[in-house]
Amino acid sequence: MRKKGTNGKESRRRLLDAAAEEFALSGFYQTKVSSIVARAGVTQPAFYLYFESKEEVFAELVDEFQSQLSELVENSRLEPGKAIHDVRNEVQTALVNGFRFLSGNPALTRIGFFQSRESVHIKAKLAMMLEEKMELEREAGYFRTDVDLSFAAEALIGIMERLTLTKLLPGRDDPVHLAEQTRLLLFNGLLLNGD
């Protein structure tokens, strides 16, 4: 497989981007190599210089999504010793970053978060990562001890998954507003104060 040189890297990236668009639009089984190369503006033999099959391209796109998402979660830890106001702001920022990531490449999000067989595994891994982070943050004194963190992590993934599908990808809402509403729900709930 050819992978050297600037033109080669650009062609390979164009093929990956075109494949993401085609897979997101038509699904894996309906997407043809011919449609990928047409969208990328390269020849079919050029496709096979970089990839053995559409399966290989799809798998690479799923891996790319999972890797970028995992990196985003890894970089969003709350450090000990912050005031609660700062914690709220940092959670808001982390949620905005998450929604921005999901909206930043809609085709890749559709593939990695919804279409691939691995999407269930990706979301399960993401929930485990969030639970581990929240456990450390609870030990730092930020979260209540009576909340099941596994439940909280799964609920957050469910919220993000559904809002991405119904609001973010169709362009009905933006990452900042979705993050704000999610934070309000998580920190304040639905009930009015005043027992």
Concise synopsis of the structure shown:
The protein contains 9 helices and no strands.
**Form type:** elongated
Order of helices and strands: HHHHHHHHH
Q: Tell me the total number of β-strands.
A: 0
CATH class of the largest domain: Mainly Alpha
What would CATH call the homologous superfamily of the largest domain? Tetracycline Repressor, domain 2
- Secondary-structure arrangement, i.e. CATH architecture of the largest domain: Orthogonal Bundle
Query: What share of residues are in beta strands?
Result: under 5%
Structural Rg: 20 Å
The unreliable regions are: 1-5
How can the largest sheet be summarized? none
Helices, by number, come to 9
The fold-level CATH name of the largest domain is Tetracycline Repressor, domain 2
Q: Roughly how much helix do the residues carry, as a percent range? A: over 70%
Distance between the termini: 67 Å
Averaged pLDDT: 92
Structural class: mainly alpha
Please give the domain count: 2
Organism: Paenibacillus zeirhizosphaerae
Protein name: TetR/AcrR family transcriptional regulator
Pfam families: TetR_N
Keywords: DNA-binding, Transcription, Transcription regulation
3D architecture notes:
With 195 residues, the chain is mostly helical. The chain is 73% helix and 0% strand. The protein is built from nine helices and no strands. The model is unreliable at 1-5 (pLDDT under 50). The longest helix has 21 residues, at 6-26. It is elongated and about 65 Å long. 25% of the residues are buried. It has helices spanning 6-26, 33-40, 44-50, 54-74, 84-104, 106-115, 119-139, 149-168, 175-188.
